[in-house]
Design goal:
The structure holds two protein chains of two kinds. Helix content of chain A is about 65%, strand content about 0%. Chain A is an all-alpha fold. The longest helix of chain A is centred in the first third of the chain and has 14 residues. Classes of the chains: A mainly alpha, B mainly alpha.
Chain lengths: ~100, ~775
Amino acid sequence: MKNPYEVLNLPMSASNEEIRMRYLELVRQFPPESAPAMAILVRAAYDKIKTTELRANYFLTKLGSETTLIDIIAGVDATVPRPRLGLGALVSAQQKVTK
Amino acid sequence: MGASKLSQDQLVHRFQVMLSRNELNDAWISLKQLLKLPTNTAGQEILNKFYFDLLEQILTAQRSQITREMLVDIPKSPLTDARKLLIVRALEFVGRGNEADAWLQKIQDANIVKGHQTRLLSQHVIDSKLTTMPPNFNPKLWDEIVAIRAAFAAYEAGHDDEAKNHLNQVGLASPLMEWKLLIRGLMAWTAKDDAKAMDNWSRLNSTGYPFSLIEPLYLQIQHLRQLDDQFFTTTAFQKFRVLRGGIFDDLARYAQQGRMQRADVDLKKAEAIANHLKRLSPTLYEQFCRYIYWLTIPIPMPDLPATKTIFFTPVEDAKLLRYRALRATKQLDAKASTLWIEYNKWLHENQAIVPANLYQQIRIAIHQEVIRINQEIMLDEHISLSHLFFATRMASNPFEEAAAVILHQAQLILELDPKQYSALLTIFNVYEQLIAEESVVTRKNQYIARQLSILEAIEKDHFHIAECRDFVLKYYQKNGNQERLIELLPQAIQADPFNTSLVKEYTRYLFQQIVRCISTGDLPQTTALLAAYDRQTVQFNIPEELQVQISAIRAAIDYKQSNLTSYEQRLAALLANKERLTGIFFLFVNITLLKVVKKRRDLILTQFTTELAECQRASQFQSLIPTIILCQLTGIKFTNSTKIYSHVFDRFVSTLLNEPERQAVVKAMLLLHELKCYPQLLRVSQELVSRNRNNPFDLLMYAEGLQHSRKRKKLDPIAASQYIEAFRLFRRLKDYPEAEPFKTVVLKIAEADPMMWDIIPENFA
């Protein structure tokens, strides 16, 4: 899961106004009717950091907590080369798990 | 064990047991015995079911010998398409292709036939032992199978172009098209062209065999980010672990675990993963360490091992203070505040790690967090002065030192954010406690002076905030500062105009002030207060007895100022009112206070005495008695005042004792109790108890009368026995009609005097 600054693609030093402008920009780019999943993500991110108070609380109690193992697995996958999975490997994995 | 001696039922049982244990040989021996026994149609259908259940398991286990034996005993009765398909598979398995084709043609359902052919093709693709074309096979299809195998081999060897050439032999309409899409997707996946891989794989039948092979990779690139933790327990994820192995497998184990079971062991494993990731990418290493950092926060374990085993510290928490504070906060540990304060200090020395525009707000947030934690601890432990309590616990220091810590923190909050009125309230409460505990007069006075300056600040800068308004008003109420209340209440009412309790309170204070003013003969001030009273009560539903009392005051002033017409009108109105007894009495009192001519005063007194003599019901005294108490409390005295008050009470008591309506008696006694008229209460209750000793309420009132009219500090033994008897009777009576007033009085007694807690039975409420 991306942290709200990553979702909005903003630095942590962003001001209220910058955050709001970016949010509006993304709402135009991802309207809820055509990109509901992204719209929800953007809205949730905005709600977490839209005011100075929220950002301060986020820094203290949440910063860094969004990382999940799924992200890390995806990150490792993006870093390491992918193997050439032959027929034998695919079938063998299938059989091992089925057993 | 031989099966021939067993009965049919025993054989059935044995077969089922063997089948469930996957002991296929024994199951087949039992079934063979069963097939030889004579049976009816229903029994035959059961045996058919046994036969095909066993055959399916035997095919899965690839047991060719038993398959051959079973094919000798194929049931003769008509078979469903699904069962025919099992025969086809069995025949193919033992290499009797032609017979299999003949059975296949007997199947009606085209989908079953198609599904079988697809499976057969897949079987030929993956089974490397099948190197020659089976006799009943279409040569073109065989060539395509060979091409797929070759494409796989070329891809695996890193020759994608060659693989593509092989795949070109498989046409769009070919039943092997899914295999072609699978390999094209695999090539794209290896090249990290996920869009292209998805394009190919999304065209596969999601229930088919080829899709099941690449499903974990498909899910990884398509959905992994949107999936929740449930995904970690699926078969697809298991396959992913097997396929990718290494670090993926290690990470997957952590993912499946979800939380730490044994912190020491799990942290060691995490450390190994972290070291692996460190070599791969600093970002991934940092991400993983952050993950572990957050994973371990809720784990209850001693501080030292936790901080030692955390092998990474995020930049914003290099001292692990935030980590420890967060954990203590989660566990509602009293150390949480201290840790946040330490973190705050550290942050102050390392401001650069925080965006400049957030620094100040973060420090405020820390202080707010400290206050919030204290309040939570307070709620958790039912302690009223949370901050003080926390401070005392925090350091186990003398109270004064703990208070100094809190005062310092509260001052710091105010420096950072002067709007934080809660800090002022905290300071005020700290001084309250310090004043209570201080025995040295000079220091006590210093604390009082500081406390008052805080009160002034709250009043001056935060009176517009409801919480502060209530705080200030309660303080003045507690200290009986009516003058200040009369000044502040109009402001409070202006800020909260719909708060009727404020208006009511203000009116009460005004009235008391008016009575006090008139008792000193200060007519101008009384008139000014009456005007204020009028302004305030325009839209307020004033109780009738209060209206009567105010009218009586105005009438007295009219007479004093020789406005006789107005006086006569007011007097007529008073006499017409249902609370006229109160009205006339209060007129008499005020006329006396204003030193009106004796003749007029005597006239009104006579009128009052006549009215009083005519009173037959206790309810007629309901507002007169509080009025008399008000006069007594205000210190209003005049010639024969004691005699008059006493006469009124005597009359009230005798009326009460003759009151036919029980409800009115109870109400009157409650009034006497509330007004603390204990001698009168004793007289009434004693008489009532002598008439009937079985009424708990009367006994309780009698006990109260006994206890308080003698003004004893200790519990009176006679009163105690009456209390006990009252409780005993109360517990025995079901559906007691006076249960509510009884409980109300008991609660008041309990609130007012802890000494009574020994007398009141447990779980009384």
